[in-house]
Design goal:
Blueprint: H1 4-7, E1 48-52, H2 57-68, E2 72-77, H3 82-94, E3 99-103, H4 109-123, E4 128-131, H5 147-157
Parallel strand pairs: 1-2, 1-4, 2-3
């Protein structure tokens, strides 16, 4: 039996560097997100999900798994990743599930509220939320992290609970 980490292509790869957020469609070799290997169990039949960052990478793998398990999905993605989002949408619809792809930035409160409203409006309900969207860069030293990068990472990945209503 082959260990999964040894079964696929090994670095170094021929993919030229991309500016973030980058496109999965320009990677060589293409990432394995389960398109031909994950079958699904049907445990999510009739369920609906909103998945942020669902256009590529781990997000696309989650979207594919949920759809293969029977869920209809709405994915949110950055506009620069349109081609990846279209590919994800095609893969899901090819499997007989509904996929709604909507561009926007989840750091914007209005975008988040609109995505929930869109999902409920199109599906009649929303039962699952996967907040997968993230921004990550690799550095050898903390001093290499710019203020802009820190702020973007911090604001994307931190939950701020709503303020409690005053009891008076």
């Amino acid at each position: 039996m082959t260990h999964p980490m040894q079964s696929g292509p090994q670095p170094p790869f021929d993919t030229p560097p991309q500016a973030p957020p980058g496109l999965e469609s320009q990677m060589n070799p293409p990432p394995d997100f389960g398109e031909s290997s994950y079958v699904g169990s049907g445990k999510l039949i009739g369920k609906t999900a909103l998945i942020t960052g669902g256009d590529s990478g781990i997000g696309r793998a989650v979207v594919l798994a949920y759809a293969r398990d029977g869920a209809d999905v709405l994915i949110s993605y950055l506009g620069e990743e349109e081609s990846d989002a279209q590919r994800t949408e095609q893969l899901i619809e090819k499997k007989g599930r509904t996929c709604i792809a909507v561009a926007g930035d989840i750091r914007e409160d209005l975008h988040c509220r609109q995505r929930v409203t869109t999902a409920i409006g199109r599906f009649g309900k929303l039962e699952i939320l996967v907040n997968n969207a993230a921004f990550q860069m690799a550095h050898k030293d903390l001093s290499e992290i710019t203020t802009e990068e820190f702020d973007r990472t911090f604001r994307t990945n931190v939950y701020t609970p709503p303020k409690a209503a005053s009891p008076w």
